[in-house]
Amino acid sequence: GSCGVQIWTHYDIMDNMLIQIVGEKRVVLFSPSDTQHMYLNGDKSEVLDIDNPDPKQFPDFLKAIQYECILKP
């Protein structure tokens, strides 16, 4: 994707493979056991900014553990 673009927090039902060919991509994953804290609406989270979630609007989101990695070629 383009530099600085953040895709919405979502989950995929099907298996996926993510490959980085050029540049770097930050990926943040959450355990399926944390879905109760993710404010899911269908396959998307209502928390749009996972780096700065509103603690008043999404207090339980802070309980979800983030697993972060940087993908490189």
UniProtKB/TrEMBL annotation:
Domain JmjC: 1-73
GO molecular function ontology, one term from the record: tRNA binding
Record Pfam families: Cupin_8
Any one GO biological process: wybutosine biosynthetic process
Gene3D superfamilies reported for this sequence: Jelly Rolls (2.60.120.10)
Transmembrane regions listed in the UniProt entry: none
PANTHER family membership: HYPOXIA-INDUCIBLE FACTOR 1 ALPHA INHIBITOR-RELATED, TRNA WYBUTOSINE-SYNTHESIZING PROTEIN 5
Name used for this protein in its record: Trna wybutosine-synthesizing protein 5
Native source species: Triatoma infestans
